[in-house]
Amino acid sequence: MAVNKNTYNTLREEFIQSSNIISKEITSTNNINDPNDITLSKTIYGKTNAKNILDEEFTEFLLQTKNYKEFFDLYDSFFYDIPKPTHESFIYESKNYLGYPFSVGKGEIVEELEKQLSFIQEQIDSIERHHPIYPNGSVIASTNSSDNRKYLLQSNRKRLIINTEIFYLIKTRLKITKPNSEFIIFIPSGGINEILDGPSITNPDEIFVGNEIINTYHG
Q: How far apart (Å, rounded) are the C-alpha atoms in residues 82 and 63?
């Protein structure tokens, strides 16, 4: 169908005007007094202004950046709803990331604490004790002439010297050159009995031992 120039210009003008319409409401009704009649309406946007008014960016579909705080907030919220295997998986992955084994069970925690306690006790047992009067390394004996036993004092414990050979070996190792009467400290039997016993010295290898052995001796 041929369109004359005037008709073309009219259609063209209507199209341009419609493109610049911000909004246009069209209402259709039959009888406004009839409650059963339904009023229909719609808003039409012009082509040009539609681009300025309508949001063409679908931001709702973009991936949202989450931080670790949001993660832990959710984790705390659903803590008791999360299956136990998932918790175990978190623990396993965290342990591998940390790079060293750590105890998670009560039994393992108790075992680790017992090891630490044992180590601390060893350190305490290794501390040298001292008699308030007689220094460690002294050889003591009773003033009772009928008692010829001699003891080496170590960490405030008296250690029985089993024979004369051991006695002179101790004296040599301590580099004592003065006579026995000046080297041996004679004290009353009651004073000797108040000093706790340590392990006896029965051979040269037992002369000098660690303080932890002396302090933990129970006879």
A: 24
Q: Which residues pair with 139 in a beta bridge?
A: 152, 184
Which three-class secondary structure string do you get for 90-139? HHHHHHHHHCCCCCCCHHHHHHHHHHHHHHHHHHHHCCCCCCCCCCCCCE
Q: CA–CA distance from 161 to each of 2, 49, 137, 173, 175 (Å)?
A: 138, 112, 13, 14, 17
Q: What is the pLDDT of residues 179-218, one digit of tens each?
A: 999 999 999 999 999 999 999 999 999 998 999 999 999 9
Delineate the domains of the chain, giving CATH numbers in brackets.
Answer: 5-28+37-53 (no CATH), 69-125 (no CATH), 139-215 (3.30.2390)
| Listed residue (184, 200, 202, 194) closest to 140, CA to CA | 184
Tally the C-alpha atoms within 13 A of residue 159's C-alpha that lie toward its C-beta: 26
* CA neighbor of 22 nearest in space, from 1, 53, 64: 53
Would you say how long the chain is, in residues? 219
* Angstrom distance (rounded) from CA 132 to CA 153: 12
Cα–Cα distance for residue pair 141/134, rounded to 1 Å = 12
Distance from C-alpha of 128 to C-alpha of 215, rounded to nearest angstrom: 8
d(CA 138, CA 183): 8
pLDDT of 71-111, one tens digit each? 888 888 888 888 888 888 888 888 777 776 555 567 777 88
